[in-house]
Amino acid sequence: MASGRAVSSAVRSAATIRSATWGHAASGQRCAAAAVLPASRAFTTAVLTRVSAASPTASRRGALPPPSSSAARWYSADPSPTKLWSFDEIQKQLQTNEDKNVVFVDVREPVELRETGKIPGAINMPMTTAVQSLHVPEDEFEEMHGYPRPGKDKTLVFYCKAGIRAKSAAGLALHAGWTSVGEYRGSWLDWAEHNGPVEKVSGGK
To answer: Which Pfam families match (predicted)?
Structure first.
């Protein structure tokens, strides 16, 4: 009997040792798996990030390229471009009258012309009346301004104080049918800065 109990006790001890050993082994495997898993995920994330950054599909989903210059020109609001005149070109035209079709048009208000004068020979067509002036019959234009309206075969060169009203008037003239239109972008401020010749204005025209 004592011998049987000893054998049974030895068997239980061996089973306990095996169970503990397996438990430690399994625990070690789980720990190893837990240690490996984050590194594996980190590696996968890094690889996916690099692939996504280099993917042509990602590039195609980015911002669209800017429109070409030809497309911008195609959708331009102006029916045709205007010539930009400089101080030297205007002064040369005044001195030589090289192009007899050129007419300088001051679109400032009459009170502005009386205060500063105007470019010699320029006609005054205030911007506030420009739309009407460019479309009314010629006899009505002459009644409004006191001089004949330049024909559509003439080159109209517009100026104002700083170039803003001149640009608008040039666009109106193009739409009204004049095909040769220019702008003096520097306008009166540039003319005065360069000490250009001045014609005094005493009346309202």
So the answer is: Rhodanese (PF00581)
Helix (H, G, I), strand (E, B) or coil at 109: coil
Q: Burial, 107: exposed, middle or buried (Cβ in 10 Å; 0-12, 13-18, 19+)?
A: buried
- d(Cα 124, Cα 202) in Å, to the nearest integer? 13
CA–CA separation, 201 vs 11, rounded Å? 129
Burial label for 141, CB within 10 Å (0-12, 13-18, 19+), is buried
Active-site choice (107, 127, 130, 160): 160
CA-nearest of 100, 101, 127 to 113 is 127
Cα(26)–Cα(22) distance, rounded to whole angstroms? 6
Q: Does the annotation mark 160 as catalytic?
A: yes
C-alpha atoms less than 13 angstroms from C-alpha of 185 in its C-beta half-sphere: 5
What amino acid occupies position 12? Answer: R
pLDDT tens by residue, 120-151: 999 999 999 999 999 999 999 999 999 999 99
Residues 196, 94 contacting (CB under 8 angstroms): no
Q: Which residue has the higher pLDDT, 173 or 52?
A: 173
Distance CA 162, CA 107 (A): 11
Q: With beta carbons less than 8 A apart as the criterion, state whether 105 and 159 touch.
A: yes
Q: What is the pTM of this model?
A: 0.61
- Tracing tokens 């029916």 back to the chain, one arrives at 79
